[in-house]
């Protein structure tokens, strides 16, 4: 994985610009298409949609869809609508997550649930889902519709899987992989696979596999950041998952290795409704000392390696190079 490792030394913001360079003009069209799809005459919907489109992130998932469509050199125009629909679905998941978690900020802006209400947040997430699916229906491609419908189902099941975990500290490593495949990897895999059907259908399977492995690596890297970085890097407060009693791979890997005193401190955190900064810092230190963060990095690197291997069947092109560079980007988003 030497190419990925070397690329990881580039600041992540610059890396993303280079990844998006082959499709930069088309990404601008995607933003316009998102606005078209998510616009309605109802004033409240217009207001909330306008706020959400300000909150859109780095457009990574539509970038994957566009690059996948260009993997054989002849991307179709309909990839723009597909990429816009993928990003609107991603936005819908964030709106729902913020409502479930009662979050007040997302990317430095008020969440829909804090600015309007939880009721508006839930319905607006549904609106984005349905508008994205309506746009895909008008494309008339049942294969793409099946992929995206399967993704929507997986996203919902992933959320329910997380909510149904009764004893968080008994959440196994396999449970964790099932969760992140549903909540994160499914959308990235779907973006790549459906993107392939818009210009590179012969590479549908390897691009779907690439997206799955990239999504797994992405979420593991994101979960590590919760233990290692602050709000200026991640866009959310450091240790937020632990504060909310969410279990991710670093903690899962550390639990069998912690001392009795360490386990007592972890149990204390999960028994405390609003753990303070001292307790949080102690648990982060315990997880790190037990090797949970290092283990998670190794597992993330394994998924990243699998993603890189999946791309080897693609012909050399700017799109393939950018997809390869995206692996390093997801593994090192600290700047």
Give a short overview.
The chain is mainly alpha-helical and 335 residues long.
Can you walk me through this structure?
Helix 2 runs antiparallel to helix 18. Helices cover about 75% and strands about 0% of the residues. It has one domain: Farnesyl Diphosphate Synthase. The radius of gyration is 20 Å and the shape is globular. By secondary structure, it is mostly helical. About 5% of the residues have low confidence. The chain has 18 helices and 2 strands.
Task: Sum up the structure in keywords.
single chain, 335 residues, mainly alpha
Instruction: Name the helix and strand elements from N-terminus to C-terminus, one letter apiece.
Output: HHHHHHEEHHHHHHHHHHHH
> Which oligomerization state do the chains in this entry correspond to?
single chain
CATH fold-level topology:
Farnesyl Diphosphate Synthase
Measured distance between first and last alpha carbons: 21 Å
CATH architecture designation? Orthogonal Bundle
**Outline:** globular
Largest sheet: 2 strands, antiparallel
Mean pLDDT: 91
CATH class: Mainly Alpha
Which stretches of 5+ consecutive residues score pLDDT under 50? 5-9, 231-237
* SS field, number of helical segments: 18
* CATH homologous superfamily placement: Farnesyl Diphosphate Synthase
């Amino acid at each position: 994985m030497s190419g990925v490792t070397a690329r990881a030394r580039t600041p992540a913001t610059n890396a993303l610009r280079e990844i998006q360079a082959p499709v930069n003009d088309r990404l601008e069209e995607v933003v316009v298409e998102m606005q078209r799809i998510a616009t309605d005459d109802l004033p409240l919907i217009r207001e909330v949609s306008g706020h959400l489109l300000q909150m859109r992130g780095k457009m990574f998932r539509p970038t994957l869809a566009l690059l996948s469509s260009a993997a054989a050199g002849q991307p179709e125009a309909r990839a723009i609508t597909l990429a816009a629909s993928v990003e609107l679905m991603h936005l819908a998941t964030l709106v729902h997550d913020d409502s479930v978690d009662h979050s007040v900020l997302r990317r430095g802006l008020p969440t829909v649930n804090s600015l309007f209400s939880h009721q508006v947040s839930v319905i607006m997430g549904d609106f984005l889902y349905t508008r994205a699916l309506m746009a895909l229906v008008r494309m008339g491609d049942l294969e793409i519709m099946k992929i995206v419908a399967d993704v929507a189902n997986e996203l919902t099941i992933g959320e329910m899987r997380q909510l149904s975990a009764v004893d968080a500290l008994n959440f196994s490593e396999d449970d964790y992989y099932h969760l992140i495949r549903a909540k994160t990897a499914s959308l990235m895999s779907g973006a790549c696979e459906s993107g392939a059907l818009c210009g590179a259908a012969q590479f549908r399977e390897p691009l779907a596999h690439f997206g799955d492995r990239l999504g797994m690596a992405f979420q593991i890297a994101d979960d590590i950041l919760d233990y290692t970085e602050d709000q200026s890097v991640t866009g959310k407060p450091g240790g937020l998952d632990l504060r909310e009693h969410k279990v991710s791979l670093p903690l899962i890997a550390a639990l069998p290795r912690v001392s009795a005193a360490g386990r007592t401190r972890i149990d204390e955190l999960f028994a405390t409704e609003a753990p303070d900064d001292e307790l949080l810092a102690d648990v982060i230190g315990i997880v790190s000392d037990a090797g949970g963060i290092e283990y998670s990095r190794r597992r993330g690197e394994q998924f990243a390696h699998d993603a890189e291997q999946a791309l080897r069947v693609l012909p050399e092109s700017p799109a393939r190079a950018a997809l390869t560079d995206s692996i390093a980007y997801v593994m090192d988003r600290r700047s």
